[in-house]
From TrEMBL:
Catalyzes the oxidation of 5,10-methylenetetrahydrofolate to 5,10-methenyltetrahydrofolate and then the hydrolysis of 5,10-methenyltetrahydrofolate to 10-formyltetrahydrofolate. Keywords: Amino-acid biosynthesis, Histidine biosynthesis, Hydrolase, Methionine biosynthesis, Multifunctional enzyme, NADP, One-carbon metabolism, Oxidoreductase, Purine biosynthesis. Residues 139-280 form the Tetrahydrofolate dehydrogenase/cyclohydrolase NAD(P)-binding domain. It comes from Salinibacillus xinjiangensis. NADP(+) binds at G165, R166, S167. This is Bifunctional protein FolD. It comes from the Bacteria. HAMAP family: THF_DHG_CYH. Gene3D superfamilies: Leucine Dehydrogenase, chain A, domain 1 (3.40.50.10860), NAD(P)-binding Rossmann-like Domain (3.40.50.720). It catalyses: (6R)-5,10-methenyltetrahydrofolate + H2O = (6R)-10-formyltetrahydrofolate + H(+); (6R)-5,10-methylene-5,6,7,8-tetrahydrofolate + NADP(+) = (6R)-5,10-methenyltetrahydrofolate + NADPH.
Length: 283
């Protein structure tokens, strides 16, 4: 039977309606949630993402401040800007768009962001809290993926989750998030031998490698839930996911499309994290 398609865009829309209400409630308490997004250089993909984040923020009533810095920006200048935003009471969330130019060490910048405003959830303090299952900012894409899987209504505890990809942004934290939900988690990566032997064990398969059609139908178990985090733009302007959608939709029970799957959830979780940052100031 053909899989049910999980439309992240529709789920994201519903969540954004709730976020609008949260923003109103905060307004009534005299707070306008504020998100600062720093972009360094002129990477076209980064510019598009930042514009999307800005538009989404404004639509729900979050104040959005985009700070554009030249590609020659030094690490010290960027650190200085982040410190300024850490101290700015009108800003509740700070996001530095990655990747950064070579002269800047990402780790240094991420560690400069106040953990209380770290809406990306990349600061080691937040990652450590995620690891120990404590309240924290959770990275946006993993949080969006968890929401999508929860929407299917399946029980996560006891399920075998296989994550393909081990980036700090998606792979590592998403595995941890599902572990915290009592799933059994396997990580696969570029050095994994006989990849399909692992992916075929998955009740929930999450693929985040950035390679179009990397997982094909014979890598998926009948009835699996398949989450495609891929988002690769080819020269013809078409966007491709990491899984072979047409093959896998005949095998899986649920599958996310690309586009309209995980992508819209990532931005929605950024808005949600910004609300969380604003709420921290009234506790
Ligand atoms: N670049 C690609 N994805 C992300 C993300 O989630 N956050 C930031 N800051 N940069 C990114």
């Amino acid at each position: 039977m053909a899989a049910e398609i999980i439309y992240g865009n529709k789920i994201a829309e519903k969540i954004r309606e709730h976020i609008k209400m949260d923003v109103k409630r905060l307004h009534n308490q005299g707070i306008t949630p504020g998100l600062a997004v720093i972009i360094v250089g002129d990477n076209p993909a980064s510019k598009t993402y930042v514009r999307m984040k800005q538009r989404a923020s404004e639509k729900v009533g979050i104040l959005s401040r985009v700070i554009e810095m030249s590609k020659e920006t030094t690490q010290e200048q960027l650190v200085q800007k982040v410190v300024e935003l850490n101290e700015d009471p009108t800003i509740h969330g700070i996001l530095v768009q990655l990747p950064l130019p070579k002269q800047i060490d990402e780790k240094v910048i991420i560690e400069t962001i106040s953990p209380d405003k770290d809406v990306d959830g990349f600061h080691p303090s937040n990652i450590g809290r995620l690891l120990t299952n404590q309240e924290c900012f959770v990275p946006c894409t993993p949080l969006g993926i968890l929401q999508l899987v929860k929407e299917t209504g399946i029980t996560i505890a006891g399920k075998h989750v296989v994550v393909v990809g081990r980036s700090n942004i998606v792979g590592k934290p998403v595995g941890q998030l599902f572990l915290n939900e009592n799933a059994t988690v396997t990580y696969c990566h570029s050095a994994t031998k006989d990849l399909y032997q692992h992916t075929k064990q998955a009740d929930i398969l999450i693929v985040a490698v950035g390679k179009p059609n990397f997982i094909e139908g014979d890598g998926v178990k009948d009835g699996a839930v398949v989450i495609d985090v891929g988002n690769t733009y080819l020269e013809n302007g078409k966007v491709f996911g990491d899984v072979h959608f047409n093959q896998i939709k005949e095998i899986a029970s649920y599958i996310t499309p690309v586009p309209k799957g995980v992508g819209p959830m990532t931005i929605t979780m950024l808005l949600q994290n910004t609300i969380k940052g604003a709420e921290k100031t009234i506790r």
